[in-house]
Design goal:
By secondary structure, the protein is of the alpha+beta class. It is built from 3 helices and 2 strands. It is elongated.
Length: 89
């Protein structure tokens, strides 16, 4: 059975995601990582806009999960890879 874990949510810490992966695996389940994508008009949209220096309001390309735009400095490409590797082990 798989458990989806959302990462890159405004205010989320890298360590929280790592701990969630470890917990899911301790239950004998498989973690499946998915990146948060900010959507205009949703309740989280204002927090998403505040959480990044990118111009979310005027650049719709930032609304997809190509980048973890709301994850802050903790979600660098190497650290994202570390989480993905941990989830696959």
């Amino acid at each position: 059975m798989e458990v989806y874990l959302l990462l890159g949510v405004p205010g989320q810490r890298w360590e929280q995601v790592r701990q969630a992966i470890v917990f899911v695996k301790s239950l004998g389940l498989r973690p499946r990582l998915t990146e948060y994508s900010p959507l205009p008009g949703t309740a989280m949209w204002p927090a998403a806009c505040r959480s990044t220096p990118l111009d979310l309001e005027n650049e719709p390309l930032y609304h997809n999960n190509t980048l973890v735009v709301c994850g802050g400095e903790e979600f660098t490409p190497p650290r994202l890879q570390e989480l993905k590797d941990l989830a696959r082990e």
